[in-house]
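User: I'm putting together notes for a lab meeting next week and I want to include a structural view of one of the chains we've been expressing. I don't have a solved structure, so I'd like a prediction I can at least talk through. The sequence is below, exactly as it appears in our construct file.
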Amino acid sequence: MKASSPSTGSTDSANGTDNRNIRLRATVFVAAAALGAGLAVGAPAEAASPAPKSAISATSVAIGSSTTADQAASSVSAQAKWVTLYHKSKKSKSWNTGAVKSRSKVFQIVIRSWNGGDGTKFRVRWQQRSGKKWKTLFTTKWRPSDGNVNRFRSDKAKKGATYRAQIQLSGQEHTSEIWLQNYA
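Assistant: Thanks for the context. Below is the predicted structure for the 184-residue chain, given as structure tokens.
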């Protein structure tokens, strides 16, 4: 196991290590050490004027605490997305969804309805529970039940409030599918 000399730039036959790589690492190490020494030279001048204790404690908390790193990691892993609170498909002329509690201010109703070629249309009412009654927040216009997905979105929902949707079909009974979602 004889390594070749660093001046030739060849590889060691035993483990295939490239001596140029070793020299590059040594150069980077020396440069980093020189940079560190340059910072150390400036340090005594700054140490001559002591910092106030509040600045020192704030710096030590920020450096010594991993809270900010944990918060940054959790914010990346917990990015906002659509969360389905209710999903159901039903063959009926009129029906109500289950009551759901909003988890955020952005609320969406997604509906798809089929008409079987008879021209049936649908409309949706978005309702909020107010005491024991349901208050209608908006009613859509009659739309064709053509199997396409329709979305109705509001950014005025109240977090923690209870909502439901009411589906009505004009004409005959057909299948409709609905999702109640939050963006959280």
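A couple of points you could mention at the meeting. Residues 1-11, 41-67 have pLDDT under 50 and may be disordered. The CA atoms of residues 110 and 151 lie 5 Å apart.

User: Perfect, that's what I needed.
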